[in-house]
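Lab channel / #folding
Pinned by the channel admin:
"Please post every new chain as: sequence first, then the structure tokens as a reply. Keep commentary short and put observations after the output so the thread stays searchable."

First post following the new format, from NK:
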Amino acid sequence: MHDIRKIRENPEAFDAAMARRGLSGVSGEVLALDEARRAAITAAEAAQAEANRAAKEIGAAKARGDEAEFERLRALMAEKKGEIARLNEEAKEKDAALTALLMGLPNVLADDVPDGDDESGNVELRRWGTPRAFSFTPLEHYQLPAARAGLDFELAAKLSGSRFVVLTGAMARLHRALAQFMLDVHTGENGLTEAITPVLVREEMMYGTGQLPKFGEDSYQTREGWWLIPTAEVTLTNFVNGEIVEAADLPMRYVAHTQCFRSEAGSAGKDTAGMLRQHQFEKVEMVSITRPEESEAEHAAMTRRAEDILERLGLPYRTIILCSGDTGFGARRTHDIE
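Reply from TO:
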């Protein structure tokens, strides 16, 4: 969530940052709510101070037999009690509205993120290898004869509905081997700590990584209130939620292989064939927790680790930086490797 103090200090810079996200004049609404909240808090404190003074004076009025003053002070205390309750409730409502507004605003983009409206504005940074040139029309992954026997979408549909798959035999082994390969490289050579985390989390953890409130429709919530994670980023990042971390313990670098769950709301008809846009899938996720001044270098290192995996597998790729209109809500910068 955005720091209200920084918005107060430089609303023009915040508006400029939000303009890159397609939003205009945001600071005015934010600061108006902030001012109303602070005014209600100040008024409540002033009313409480008056009530405290009256409480001190009422005993003295009673002791000297000044019934008129005693009654006036008693009425004042009753009045202030109601006023304090009203102002505290008003401050609470304004605070909730301000929090909701700030949490609904996208992250500030890094300076090197190119401006653009959509994926056509993305910029290629580099590429590795040469994509194969086929003398025939290549098949989709789910059409390959060697894979078809181990990819059963019909069985998955019987069990769970659309956007699921059952892997069997060699495909299941290959799936497991790829995840194991990535974990072994990241833990054995890149120095990351492997973690096995829950896939059910409390709601505040989803807020902690920006999945809520923006992407609630894209995730699954249980009747008990837990949320199914859409990525291990939720659990790994929240390891330090509410914690004070010793500088000497940084950076903290984690990797996890987990089941992930997404409802894919709003994606009807998009990439429905094969293993794309599945409701349930597995992912190996890397998360680094580091000092702000070291985050740029850490992001570059994480990108390089992901590129190295593809190079070891002999898969040509290109790395692009997403433009402002294609960068995700919670991201400051996104490198896609495709």
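NK: The two ends are 30 Å apart (CA to CA).
TO: also worth noting, The domain at 132-315 is CATH 3.30.930.10 (BirA Bifunctional Protein; domain 2).
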